[in-house]
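Homework-ish question, so no full write-ups if that breaks the rules, but can someone show me the predicted structure for this set?
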Amino acid sequence: MYIAPTIREWNGYVAIDEAITPERDERLSAERAYELYWADLLGADATFLCVGQGCEAHLICACLEKPEQNLRIRPYFRSRRLEDHAATCEVVHARGGEKEENKPDVFEAQRPADHFRAAPSVTAPASVSHDGLAPRRTSGVTGTAKRASHYYRLSSLVQKFLEHRRDDDLDEASVEIGGETTTYAALFRNVYRQKVAELTGTRAVWWGKASIRATKEGGYFLTFSRPFRHDDTELRPTITLAAKDIEAYAVRRLLKARLDKLIDEGGRCVVFAWAKPWMPTNAESAFVRFYVNNLDHIDVRGTEVLDELKNTSRVAR
Ligand SMILES: [Zn+2]
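A: Not a homework solution, just the prediction itself:
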């Protein structure tokens, strides 16, 4: 069965999901192009070509250099003009086709080992065109069958959460995470006033208002300002991002750009962490932490995300 590729309007443009970059001989999503750019593995001047049949339209990856993301800013591909695409290109000429299948998004808890490999050195003669036209694709990476979206950074999933919330379909939109399929509605949980002692076994995307500061060691320390409930008290969870984890993180330039900007603006933020709340079993006074060793599992945003959440029709969970 032919499945039409995803076509959406975005900021008035036809947003295209995937492109081929001859520099890496790789077919990739705009999200991956964004990560490669921020991992210093793809230049701002990289070439992106349409994946459509017989089409070599040059695409732009919008928002590639913007560290922040919100409901108006996210990476996507687009062409300068619709006429850039070949007549045979199904990416932009397949409107009104069959409805795309609803596949769950997939959040991978671990990246493949070679995920941030440098571009392979271009030695294959096929990558140099014989006809003086645009570079040819050397791998069989064309075709537009819709693939499930795979995400590695929690930030990408938060982005989808915000979009589904805006579209009011959090209960239907599914996501595969940690080997289980759930809905965005069930996965994202606000810490506020929840009974933490009953939830220490619950891995979810916990979120809430928080404040952030830099530590002397070169890491970051976050404190939720909205608390969990515990007996008669309230517990504000904390998260430490260790300097050594940040140094080892491929997309650290993006993470630091975001966090330092928030600190410059006063440190108020909204944090999302895929983790279980942790409490000590026999400490004098109870406290809660989220341990985030894999920095792909945390997303920290400015408080304007609260307006985005508020302006959607759903009640915070
Ligand atoms: Zn095309």
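Now go work out the reasoning yourself. Hint: Confidence is low (pLDDT under 50) at residues 1-6, 123-136, 313-317.
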